Amino acid sequence: MITFENVCKTYPDGTEAVCDLTLKVSEGETLVLLGTSGSGKTTTMKMVNRLIEPTGGRILVNGLDIMDQDPIYLRRKIGYAIQHIGLFPHMTVAENIAVVPKLLQWAQKDIDDRIDMLLETVGLEPGEFRSRSAFQLSGGQKQRVGVARSLAADPPIVLMDEPFGALDPITREQLQDEFLELESVIQKTIIFVTHDVVEAVKMGDRVALLDEGRLQQLAAPSELVESPANEFVAQFLGKHRFQLSLMTQTVRSVGPEAIRSGYKPDTRPTVSVGLRTSLVDALDLFKKTGAATLPIYEQRRYVGELAKRGLLHTITEVLGETESFSGESNGGQDEAGGVS
Amino acid sequence: MNAIAKFFADYGAEMLQSTREHVILTLIAVLIACAVAIPLGVLLARCRFKLLVNIVMGLASIIQPIPSLALVALTVVLFYLINGLLGIRLLATLGTGPALVALVAYALLPILRNTFIGIRQVDPTVVEVATGMGMTHRQILFSVQLPLALPFIMAGVRISTVWTIGVATLVSLVGAGGLGDLIFRGLSSYKIHLIMAGAGPAAVLALMLDWLLGRLEEWLAPSGLRNTNPQ
Amino acid sequence: MSIGKKLLLLVGVAAVVLAALLVVQYLTPKADIVIGGKDFTEQSVLGEMLAILIEENTDLTVERKLYLGGTMICFNALQAGDLDLYAEYTGTGLVNILKHDAISDPDEAYSAVKIAFERDYGLVWLEPFGFNNTYTLTMRRAQADELGIHTFSELAAHVQQQEAGSGEHLTAGFTAEFIERSDGLKGLCETYGFQFATEPKQMAPGLMYKACADGDVDVICAFATDGRIAAYDLITLEDDRKFFPPYYAAPLIRAATLARYPELQDVLNRLAGKLDNRTMQELNLQVDRSDNPRQARDVARDFLLSQGLITPKEQ
């Protein structure tokens, strides 16, 4: 869907923001651009809708070079959400969301229906929030409106630049979870920029880690965490490695001794784990239910019972692995670390 | 009471005439000043050449410190000299011609400066988002920047209008009419009631126009900014 | 309505309003004759007289531009064609405008300006009204009597004694024009060889008289035909060295206007010799007095009626 071919961005004063970037984003995929400030991640994202123009290489959207397309029409087909949201203060929530549909000359009825639908989707009651002004919203509400606005014209591609960055940690996590749910419902190609490695692993189908404009590793979160491609990546994961492993490793990787066959229950229990449930989520469930074992269902098939003890054992092993790893790269431990 | 009735009987028609002249002059001057200063202010705000911006604003600012009476007089002299240089009577040396030039010159700066500041103070984040969403330059100007700059621009227009009403009292000295006619006659013959016949309507006019412009601003105010009760 | 549409509507309305105003201002038919006047009462009375005469005896329309800011504004406007006519004084024309030396003989002064103005400026002096509104130095009668000052020379002597320290300190109040003109303060002080100890205060012509009467100033450059001299019990001093030229008032009109409307010559000359100093003073006083003052146009009209220069309207 989006292809970068040897893309470069060099500023007139010689700064190389992006160097020789080549990657492909598949349709429906969420690609996270991860890096510290100055890594070129935001520049890369902004080149997709030509807010910044590449100085070298090509970017193709749907097979067409973006430089051959009119930038205005290009942007109207790409959703755009930024960290500081930028809600138009002189417009109501409804008017804000309606901006791009109006630019595309949708019928007013369609626009109104879409606004109501989007507000419900982001968890804001339309009747209450439609006519509110920007300063009558809390930070979280503003961000939700920002997301709704970026989806207003149902664009196939959405660019999001640290959309949850300006929120407190609790709200941020809440919105991340809501967004993940949203993603599973809507099929969009998303480029998501963040400096937070935990967020990257949580939100992305694949993660592209950039440093000083160069691609360090492009991989699925689990591969990124388990097999860092180079020293830089390893340092970037830094002290988050344990937490990240718990997020990327699944019940499947728990040893067979922890999974016992059990008697398939007659009715499917309310609480169960899947083979693809992450270790940290499985742990959460054990904490919530206080059970010693939980049933494992893969799709609808009963697979067996997961013992809490077995899970904990696996987790300890992961801790050991990550600790030994961090031990090796102890020298760089303090400098790296994804969160600036 | 009788004295007041007599006063209006004597001077009523003249007050009306002078007020009419005054209003016309003020409105023409302010409208022309808006027509020049608002687009110019927008252009300057979007202009990237600092030097050019400074030059233009500097030129406009030079006028303000010149006492209004001096400016009116200077305009008359200027026109006279130009006529002399050209050898023909191109510009009127008396009356509303030079008066309007001086009035417009005075009315320009508040509007120009406020428009400039108004557009510049618009949050760059908002402009960036508007660009990213696919608005053209013109759409950004009319749908985002101008609405957000509106309070500033209107403040400038209001200041300018009230100011112009005041300066316009001086133009009677160069035969342009207006409420200054009554004021100067009153001063000249030491008749307080004549002074009031001129100054009173001028003050009332200033208040009225300021109020009207306030209502205009309300009508124009974008819906999002109307709810002034934050959570 | 969206704000963009509102702005558009506003601009449209504003443009229409501006166009309408400009039409009203500049395309309404101009009057045939524009009469000017300086910034004091006598000029309003004379101006109205000239205007009413023309309106009643011809078909022409008249616009009045009275209370203009001084001689030069009127004169320049007359030259430029922004005025057609106003009442000027021979002395002013001679010394102030032509920058000649003063001529004390009234008829000589009149001929001199008449010839020069027609030749150099294309402006015609019509017949004088008959009064000499010269600058005078004026004081409160009581004080003048007390100090024994009746002539300019006596005043000069007194002021010089002030310098030496003795004698009562006299203050002066003059109009801006008087201070500036060569036939004003400067020439006066040169001719009579004195200087006021304190800078003379600058004030508007209309305010001088009361200021003098109230004691705010002692000496003013009063106009000889101002009614308030008598009303406030002021006395004019004698110009014993004849510094001030004669200031006989007459209509000053553009030759071009006269050529276009030759009937004006006869009409305006009907006022020739009809106003002497005393009459002019009385008329001025009717407008300037604090007790039931009248409007200049009413005073002018009544005078013209009384002289039979216009016929009374049917009520």
**Mean pLDDT reading of chain A:** 85
Describe the largest sheet of chain B. none
By CATH, the architecture of chain B is named Orthogonal Bundle
Gyration radius over CA of chain A: 22 Å
Structural class of chain A: alpha/beta
List unreliable stretches of 5+ residues of chain B.
227-231
In helices, the fraction of residues of chain B equals over 70%
The CATH homologous superfamily name of chain B equals MetI-like
Count the strands of chain A?
Answer: 13
Order of helices and strands of chain A: EEEHEEHEHHHHEHEHEEHHHEHEEHH
For the largest interface, the chains and their residue counts are:
B-C, 40 and 40 residues
Order of helices and strands of chain B: HHHHHHHHH
Average pLDDT value of chain B? 85
Q: What oligomeric state best describes the polypeptide chains here? A: heterotrimer
Helices of chain B, by number, come to 9
Report the CATH topology name of chain B. Answer: MetI-like fold
List its salient traits:
heterotrimer, A: alpha/beta, six-stranded mixed β-sheet, four-stranded antiparallel β-sheet, globular, disordered C terminus, B: 231 residues, mainly alpha, 9 helices, 0% strand
Describe this structure in words.
The complex is a heterotrimer of chains A (340), B (231) and C (315). In chain A, the strands form three sheets. In chain A, strands 6-7-8-3-9-10 form a six-stranded mixed β-sheet, with helices on both faces. In chain A, 40% of the residues lie in helices and 22% in strands. Residues 328-340 of chain A have low confidence and may be disordered. In chain A, helix 3 runs parallel beside helix 6 (139-150) and helix 8 (197-203) runs parallel beside helix 11. With 340 residues, chain A is of the alpha/beta class. Chain B has a single domain (17-225), classed as MetI-like (MetI-like fold). Chain B is flat. Chain C is mostly helical. Chain C folds into two domains: 33-132 and 247-306, Periplasmic binding protein-like II (D-Maltodextrin-Binding Protein, domain 2), CATH 3.40.190.10; 135-236, D-Maltodextrin-Binding Protein, domain 2 (3-Layer(aba) Sandwich), CATH 3.40.190. In chain C, helix 2 crosses helix 15 and helix 14 packs antiparallel against helix 15 (296-306). The longest helix of chain C has 25 residues, at 3-27. Chain C is globular and about 80 Å long. At the B-C interface, helix 1, helix 3, helix 6, helix 7 and helix 8 of B face helix 1, helix 3 and helix 10 of C.
